[in-house]
Amino acid sequence: MGMPFTELAVRNVLSGFQDPETGRSTVQLEQIHKLQLGDKKLSVTLGLTTWAAPLWEAMREELGALLKSRFPDVAIDVTVEEHHRPAEPSGNLGLTAKTVLTVGAGKGGVGKSSIASYLACGLARSGAKVGLMDADVYGPSVPHLFGIQDTPRLQGGKIQPIEMAGVKILSMGLLIPPDQAVVWRGPMLHKALQQFVSDTAWGDLDYLVVDMPPGTGDVALSLAQFLVVTGAIIVCTPQDVALLDATKAVSMFRNLKINVLGMVENMSFFLCPTCSSRHEIFGCGGVKRRAAEMGVPLLGEVPLDTQLRILGDEGRVFASFDHAPTRSYLEAIPQTLVKNLVAARRSKPVMPTLPLL
Ligand SMILES: Nc1ncnc2c1ncn2[C@@H]1O[C@H](COP(=O)(O)OP(=O)(O)O)[C@@H](O)[C@H]1O
Ligand SMILES: [Mg+2]
Question: Ligand 1 in contact with 264 (CB < 6 A)?
């Protein structure tokens, strides 16, 4: 069974296929190219934006399966190519980023900076345009994790972020000597954060990931005044105490009217390098349960792994993706996040698609 295999029928099926970024018909947005029908053969090129890069493979499979379900006797070949769609201003300081993500936690040492770095690197590895802003002005550790020694250059009156592993990075740690303690008063802190956004040549970004300081909401409050924050990601560890802190962090962001996109459980279990088995030192399932109680999705879990700590200390956090035992855990986080962002958009009413004639 199936539909008659005609170009009109194919176009009708394609017109119902939504672009993940906009939720609109890929046909209406002219993202379907090189449509070729042969004798029981169909090949189509689907243009997708770099914002959706973590989902490219999934979308290719989804479109292939959709076409196959309608034209079961036809050999189907779907190719994905890049479709350019510029970012619009996010806030009033000239930053052009499609999605702004803050990574926070109730307390320090849970792996916020590591998770923010994994997220930024994971998004960039799939092909998205990514910036990483270290807003932990009290303890900036992003330069250490990426092994950055250089001081950012000033060009045309703008700070040039340092590019590492495809991620554009800026941190207070790059502007102030590392051994110098900084005491920020409220207004100075606000001004410094503003400059991070307005005076930095971020360019056109799909994602700006912001590594937040632990605890108090002053940085989040400042950022929310001049940035459109898409949402917060909360990092926690499985111990009960840390969970309480995570609960506080969730309610802090909610009080600030910042959407909580999900939790990441770090140091979930110990991946033993000798026996490669999983040791659940702090028990299992606690974060998932708590996240569900708070109505927050769990975006992923990252094992406690000696190699991750070593790579962080060596300034090669980006190489964590080459460490086979943890790779799939690290890759799952950006994928789940972007899937959820897409699902949230799809649940909103989208523009109706007109039948094609
Ligand atoms: N999953 C993990 N496995 C091993 N070490 C980790 C893991 N996550 C973080 N670390 C290490 O723990 C320390 C603190 O992490 P960091 O990301 O700086 O935390 P935070 O930003 O919350 O203070 C770093 O040395 C880091 O390399
Ligand atoms: Mg940190």
Answer: no
